[in-house]
Specification:
mainly alpha; two-stranded antiparallel ribbon; 28 helices; 53% helix
């Protein structure tokens, strides 16, 4: 049994090169040759940051203005641009001084070619042209170095740039329409760290808890109900007793495949998806034996952990936790990362995924802060829920027969705890741009300076990849098969609307995308993909290229589907049309159908011509009918009405596949059943 693992503080063992085949797992990530990506649409990160990005290496000079296709030579993070420019300076200087051979060999050994340059008239005046290009590169590098703030890291340079570019994109989006402004506000408030103004505000409304907890006590922890009655010889095949073991086994055959139907796993396991998924993966990876984790204690802990996910929360529940665990498992197995991470790091990543949303109340961090909740007070408004998930997850290990890490030595326990804390805190969505910038900077910088290998020879680089891996798994819904993605979208919208109802009842400002009366869900999903999911997965795809190509293709297909569900409004809008929008918001955003499918462009145009007439007649419609349209309940499908009714009653359950199929047929036959906030049954 090999108990060696990557030293969190000291990196690889002294005397071992990261390229040494005998080195510990995780020495380096082998990058495949930079083959052009097949027709890959680039994210907004590759657009020109025109006011700041004056580098000859920037997209403004290297990117075609007529193509959105991603090219491998494009560098977007400032520090990597500095490196690329300095490399060009060296190359040019070598040519001028007739030292091409020596420099060429040096460049080849680094595993990366100099970024391409605009060759205008090299054949006519080569030395003069090279001198001009060299001066341009030097001028830009000097300007960057002169304005570099000493307290800012190179990753902060990229983070600030990406935030600036995202703000500009969102500003343009918000000017297009009311729904565009709504999408912009949602993305900005969720995925960008909130800037705190110093204005004197009135005291916020306090969230009244039925039971007050001492500040030193972790709330939400219940006494374990699963005793030590499980004997290793009597543990069922998947860790828990199930009535449909055959069907569950069929689903779990795909445990190593991206896009497993975790909803069926939940159904067939008797609502124990997290326990059976973790048990199956730990068996698959032989982690129980490697770390001497007793099976009965593992099952007791997992069932206790799963019980601390709220069944009445539509999205952040045990099914989501199981989905993130399984997604992390698949990402850990990607060929580019084969043998990169140690068993202890794999154990930490899976454990972090399992606990990352435990005891989630179905409310956002900002809601807890705005209502002066006990959790916000305890954690000083900083990553409130993420800190709570960690506290609950580690506290549960102290329960009777729950310490699954009891046979790890002290150093292993300390290392695992440090990694888990770093990974779970990184699931705070307000840290998204920082995470993305860190990963993008690392990938581009290492790509410029390494031997075709991304060296992960220190804790900082290794945990950075693991943090982004769990973050990708947490934001993986849009990369899954469409039928699964639509179910996740339904669930998160129910959770948003539930919070919006509470905010309305308290007289608070309703958070973006939480108002069930006017949420523009289809457009929000497109914006969510364009500005958050696509840039993240695009960067991950660069890290493990070409392993993530299928995932990126699915993401693109799903994005196109949601885009097709957004009807185009006539332009320019007239005052009458504006009034029609005001009185008939549901019709404005509802996808149209023709013969059970998405309408053609001519169908949409015909629908939009009648929209104004319907909007004008809205004023004469009965008040109750108008109210039914506004809330979206009047024309809801049976499945959606049940979903909203169940959640409003704080009891959440899934419809059966048969019911779902029947409801979907109903929706296709009746366009009135399509709601603005409903993306599928």
């Amino acid at each position: 049994m090999d108990w060696n693992f990557f030293d969190v503080e000291n990196g690889l063992s002294v005397g071992r090169s990261p390229m040494d085949p005998q080195a510990s797992p995780g020495s380096g990530l082998v990058r495949q040759p930079n083959f052009p990506h097949s027709q890959r649409r680039e994210s907004f990160l590759y657009r020109s940051d025109s006011d700041f990005d004056l580098s000859p290496k920037g997209p403004s000079k290297n990117s075609s203005t007529t193509s959105d296709l991603h090219t491998e030579d494009m560098i977007v993070t400032p520090f990597a641009q500095v490196l690329a420019s300095l490399r060009t300076v060296r190359s040019n200087f070598a040519i001028i001084t007739n030292q091409q051979d020596r420099t060429a060999s040096k460049i080849r050994s680094s595993g990366s070619h100099p970024p391409s340059m605009c060759k205008t008239s090299l054949a006519e005046e080569p030395h003069q042209q090279l001198a001009i290009e060299t001066l341009d590169e030097l001028d830009w590098c000097l300007e960057q170095l002169e304005t570099l703030k000493t307290r800012h890291s190179v990753s902060e340079m990229a983070s600030n740039k990406f935030k600036r570019m995202l703000n500009r994109e969102l500003s343009q989006l918000s000017e297009t329409s009311r729904s565009g402004n709504q999408v912009s506000e949602f993305i900005s408030s969720t995925f960008l760290e909130k800037q705190h103004d110093m204005d004197i505000m009135s005291p916020p409304t306090e969230e009244k808890d039925d039971k007050k907890w001492p500040m030193s006590q972790i709330s939400g922890v219940k006494k374990a109900t699963h005793g030590p009655s499980l004997a290793p010889s009597t543990i069922p095949r998947f860790g828990v007793s199930v009535s449909e073991e055959g069907l569950l086994a069929k689903e779990l055959e795909d445990i190593n495949r991206w896009g497993i139907d975790i909803f069926k796993v939940s159904e067939y396991s008797g609502n124990r998806p997290l326990t059976v998924t973790m048990y199956t993966i730990f068996q698959e990876r032989d982690l129980l034996k490697t770390f001497r984790i007793p099976m009965d204690i593992f099952i007791t802990f997992m069932m206790t952990l799963e019980d601390h996910y709220h069944s009445d929360v539509a999205y952040h529940n045990n099914i989501h936790a199981a989905d993130v665990v399984q997604s992390t498992h698949v990402l850990l197995s990607t060929p580019a990362l084969e043998a990169v991470f140690t068993d202890l790091e794999i154990l930490a990543a899976l454990f972090a995924s399992a606990i990352h949303d435990v005891d989630h109340p179905g409310l956002s961090n900002q809601f807890l802060i705005n209502t002066n909740s006990e959790l916000a007070l305890m954690y000083n408004d900083l990553s409130v829920l993420e800190n709570h998930h960690l506290a609950v997850g580690f506290k549960l290990l102290q329960g009777d027969n729950c310490d699954i890490f009891q046979n790890l030595n002290k150093k292993q326990c300390q290392s695992l705890r440090k990694m888990v804390i770093d990974m779970v805190l990184a699931t705070d969505m307000s840290k998204h741009m920082n995470l993305l910038a860190d990963l993008k900077t690392m990938v581009e910088t290492k790509k410029l300076t390494s031997l075709g290998v991304l060296l992960l020879d220190n804790y900082s680089d290794r945990i950075q990849v693991l943090q982004n891996m769990v973050h990708c798994a947490d934001l993986s819904n849009p990369t899954k098969p469409l039928e699964l993605y639509r179910q996740w979208t339904d669930r998160i919208m129910v959770e948003f609307f539930t919070q919006g109802d509470r905010e309305r009842d308290k007289g608070m400002e309703i958070s973006p995308m939480c108002d069930k009366h006017n949420a523009s869900v289809e457009k929000n999903q497109v914006g969510f993909i364009d500005y958050i999911v696509h840039p993240l997965w695009e960067t991950w795809g660069d890290l493990v290229h070409p392993d993530a190509q299928e995932i990126l293709d699915t993401l693109e297909d799903n994005r196109e589907w949601y885009q097709s569900m957004i009807p185009h409004s006539p332009s320019p809008q007239t005052e009458g049309q504006e009034e029609a929008e005001e009185h008939a918001p549901i019709l404005e955003e509802a996808p149209t159908h023709s013969g059970g499918g998405v309408s053609s462009s001519s169908d949409k145009f015909q629908f939009e011509l009648t929209l104004e007439e319907e909007g004008e007649s809205d004023a004469e419609s009965p008040p109750e009918e108008e109210q039914g349209h506004r809330t979206g309940f009047g024309s809801a499908s049976p499945a959606c009405r049940r979903l909203l009714k169940n959640v409003s009653g704080r009891t959440f359950s899934l419809d059966s596949d048969k019911e779902m199929a029947e409801d979907q047929e109903t929706d296709q036959d009746d366009v009135s059943a399509v709601l603005r906030f409903r993306l599928g049954t």
